[in-house]
Design the sequence.
């Protein structure tokens, strides 16, 4: 159930991103990160962080985007072991 919730939040975040609503996208991706983190779902957290980093990039916050993407990369490399 939690993975589905995180996936749903992530999908809604993508919709918000592509309909030019970055504040909503940030909120949705942030909650998705929290749900994935609570489940110790590293792969899900990496995906959600990646999308959160994209929002920062689209907004022109390049330093923030880089930091978030680096965190996403760490979780992606560790995977769900």
Sequence:
């Amino acid at each position: 159930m939690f993975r589905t919730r995180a996936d749903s939040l992530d999908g809604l975040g993508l919709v918000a991103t592509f309909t030019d609503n970055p504040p909503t996208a940030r909120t949705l991706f942030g909650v998705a990160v929290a749900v994935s983190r609570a489940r110790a779902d590293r792969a899900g957290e990496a995906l959600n962080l990646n999308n959160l980093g994209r929002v920062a990039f689209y907004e022109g916050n390049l330093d923030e985007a880089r930091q978030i993407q680096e965190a996403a990369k760490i979780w992606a490399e560790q995977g769900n072991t």
User: Anything to note?
Assistant: Residues 9 and 61 are 22 Å apart (CA to CA). The first helix runs from residue 2 to 18.
